[in-house]
Amino acid sequence: MSNETGGTMSTNDPDHGGDGVALQEGDLPARFENPGIPEHQHRMADTDPKAAKRAERQVAFLFVLSMVGTLVMIVGYFAVKMDHDLGFIDYLNRLELSNKLLGIGMAISLLGIGVGAVHWAKTLMPDEERIDYRHLQRGSDEVRAEAVDMLATGVEESGFARRPLIRNTLIGAMALFPLPGLILFRDTGPLPGKYLATTFWKAGDRLMLDPEGGPIKASDMVLGSVAHVLPEGIEEAEHPLNEKAKAAVLLIRLEEDLLAPESLPGAHGGIVAYSKICTHMGCPVALYEQRTHHLLCPCHQSTFDLTQNCKVIFGPAKRALPQLAITVDDEGYLVAAAPFSEPTGPSYWERS
């Protein structure tokens, strides 16, 4: 339609010359011509069988290169030994070599698959432009059958079925590519088995002050006092840091009549011992509010009530802190009466 200043406007309204119809003044044309799709330019591989064969070999070479990169990564991972008895400089040199082999191998593996797929699509797969008009989202059975036929045609035109060299090398590259990930994840450590469910504590172990060391007597624990303790002999464990991460315990004394009935069998004269490892994410629960008898985790504010057998009263933790049953030996020193009756720390997949 015309605007106030003259001239013309085109519209898609079918009642006013739709589909590009221009309502004009004077001798302007009634319709703009559709320029159509540009003439298709054939590639060398479309007209020259030798060029197509050469492109096929190039794609296969890239997929084989990807397989070589994957193998370099795997071999480099196992060939470079990271023994801890090496000198510090030698250890760093080996670590650098290992990282370079892993990085270069993964880069070649990814690059081979990616560039090979792009080169395949640009040189061998059909590149003609086609027009498909919009239709209802859910087509008829005939349209759906036609779509299946189009997919089958696409597979045929891609050459996946009739180019076994490309197909087989692609399958080989894709089959090898996940292996480094599986190896790396599997080699993060042995499966835990019962290791997470047990601690260094056993019946008769003296409670040793942490970090100063030395045993502690029940008479040393005055009302309201708090001590951080570990089991005797933990420094001689095969992996002392790992054991400390599970066995750390808070020792606290409060009025015995405040204790919940279920915590009394494991207490001694108002002295109770609970795991220091938060049952949410494993942070150290080290903040004690003497007036409220609450233990607070500083990481995510999970709060445990000592008077309710360390039940969770606030925060994301879902389980109470496990209690370590304690007693005294013949010399009056506090000792563990038994190991923890349940795993300490956060939940994990094998926990029952």
From TrEMBL:
Residues 1-24 are annotated as: Disordered. Residues 1-12 have a biased composition (Polar residues). Keywords: 2Fe-2S, Cell membrane, Disulfide bond, Electron transport, Iron, Iron-sulfur, Membrane, Metal-binding, Oxidoreductase, Respiratory chain, Transmembrane, Transmembrane helix, Transport. Belongs to the Rieske iron-sulfur protein family. Iron-sulfur subunit of the cytochrome bc1 complex, an essential component of the respiratory electron transport chain required for ATP synthesis. The bc1 complex catalyzes the oxidation of menaquinol and the reduction of cytochrome c in the respiratory chain. The bc1 complex operates through a Q-cycle mechanism that couples electron transfer to generation of the proton gradient that drives ATP synthesis. Residues 269-335 form the Rieske domain. It is found in: Cell membrane. Pfam families: QcrA_N (PF19297), Rieske (PF00355). The chain crosses the membrane at residues 59-80, 100-121. It is a multi-pass membrane protein. This is Cytochrome bc1 complex Rieske iron-sulfur subunit. The keyword Translocase does not apply. It comes from Kineosporia mesophila.
